[in-house]
Amino acid sequence: MNVHVKNPIGRLLPLAVMVAGLGSGMAWAELPPVPALDGLTISGEKATSKKGIAQVELVNGSPKVVDASAKTLANADFGAPLTDGQIIQTGAQDRVLLRLDNGDYFHVGPESLLSVHKKEDGWSAQLWRGQVMAYALPELKGRKSPLTIHLPQGKINLRASKVGISSDGSSSRVLVFANEAIWQSEQGETTSVEAGSGLALPAKESIKVEPAMEEAMITATNPAIQVAKQATEAFQAKDYGTAKTLYSQLQTAYPYNGNAAYFLGLISLEQGKKQETVKQWKLYSNLEPEEAANREIPQKLTLLLTEQMKTEIDKALAIEKKFATGKPEPGTVAVSPLVNKGDEKYKILAKGLTAMIITDLAKVPGLKVLEREKMQKIMDELSLMKSGLVDEETQVRAGRIMRAEKVIVGDYAVK
Fold first, then answer.
1. 275 in helix, strand or coil?
2. 223-315 in CATH: which number?
3. What percent of the chain clears pLDDT 90, i.e. is strictly above it?
4. What ranges make up the beta strands (E) of 7-93?
5. Are 32 and 126 in contact (CB under 8 A)?
6. What are the backbone dihedrals phi and psi of residue 226, each rounded to the nearest 5 degrees, phi first?
7. What pLDDT, on the 0 to 100 scale, is given for residue 24?
8. Phi/psi zone of residue 371: left (φ > 0), alpha (ψ -120 to 50 degrees), beta?
9. What is the pLDDT of residue 208?
């Protein structure tokens, strides 16, 4: 039957409610009893298995992976896989990011028991107690059915939804933060719950979702908040090894985390790994251009790249004799900056004309064009550019230092 119930936001919405009695054929997949956790053997080792159906991507605290059938516990460390039916058990201070292999993921908060399952008809999870934020992504990887989460009072179906769930076993609360979710009770009654609404169970009382509720659920369940705090504290204490490990885990779990890239760049700089600093700060500049500009990252990158190039050139000059006798790299060409032979005001054209030649040569199959900036730097080191005069023989020397098979030299004049 169809009824109208008042949405907590204050307007009337038609909610499709189907009531199914005994013998209707709408059987509910009941939540199994809470697994017996007494007498489990703690291995103290990282959870391992063959290819899992889910993976622990970030951890705060010391959560465990429970294999009830084998009566064992293992540490749910970063990267630990879960097989079908294994359980994540969190303590009072634990939080876990658990990602399913279809892209959906859970933030699992303290004092929780959660298992995940993969069947032909789709994915499901079982939450006996605790708090989780469930993120069901849009139609990815051939998804044909929703993500179903079983609670003691029924189940919730998610499609492209973001939902916060808390339960103590006897009562539960479901809060929908994005799109909608479909609640189905143990008796088979279904209710559509829109974003901004929630249900208190088993009474099925409507809840108006306030912004602070979502923030509170994220704070309670997301391990990234505490991991980032610990990483920052380690960095400030100059414990760069710990800080790097934690920031690397954050970056793996959240590739678009600009803050992780920034600090990984700083740590690499402290450790003298400037090439890694360049890599991380380029990523940071792409992810957070405004923040990067405020921290003068583009300018620092320019200095690092210049210094890196000078170091490479100094090394090449120092072993020039080795390059002179060694074979050049096949299929390589170095383009020497064109020299202005005409009016001085046209000197600014040199870089652009040289770049045009490099661009065209780069399109030639099997030809590798060496870096223009490095060629220019070598020529500066060899003092080739004096009053617009270039020693062609010395230009060839610069190309040889770069192990170029061919060197293109030339000049231009505008008349």
1. helix
2. 1.25.40.10
3. 33
4. 12-16, 41-46, 54-60, 64-67, 72-75, 81-82, 87-89
5. yes
6. -70, -35
7. 30
8. beta
9. 92
**Cα gap 129→124, rounded to integer Å:** 16
Domain ranges of the chain: 2-219, 223-315, 325-412
Residue pair 353/412 in contact (Cβ under 8 Å)? The answer is yes
CB 195 within 8 A of CB 180: yes
Q: What tokens were used for 311?
A: 């170091």
Q: Are 32 and 65 in contact (CB under 8 A)?
A: no
Query: Is the predicted pLDDT of residue 18 greater than 50, yes or no?
Result: no
Lookup: tokens for 318? 């120092």
CA 233 to the chain's CA centroid: 22
Q: What is the pLDDT of residue 224?
A: 92
Q: What is the rounded CA–CA span in Å between residue 335 and residue 193?
A: 65
Predicted confidence (pLDDT) per residue in 233-278, tens digit: 999 999 999 999 999 999 999 999 999 999 999 999 999 898 899 9
405 phi-psi bin (left φ>0, alpha ψ -120 to 50, beta other) = alpha
DSSP structure string for 125-185: EEEEEEEEEEE--SS-TT--S-EEEEETTEEEEESS-EEEEEE-SS-EEEEEEESEEEEEE
Look at strands 339-340 and 411-412 and give their pairing: parallel
pLDDT mean over 341-354: 84
Q: Which two tokens stand for residue 280?
A: 């991380």
Match 């070598």 to its residue by tokens.
378
| CA–CA gap between residue 225 and residue 93 (Å, rounded) | 13
Domain 2-219 coded CATH 1.10.287.110: no
Is residue 21 classed exposed, middle or buried when 0-12, 13-18 and 19+ CB atoms within 10 A define those classes?
A: exposed
**Burial tier of 245 (Cβ tally within 10 Å: 0-12, 13-18, 19+):** middle
**Predicted confidence (pLDDT) per residue in 172-224, tens digit:** 999 999 888 999 887 788 889 999 999 998 888 899 999 899 999 999 999 99
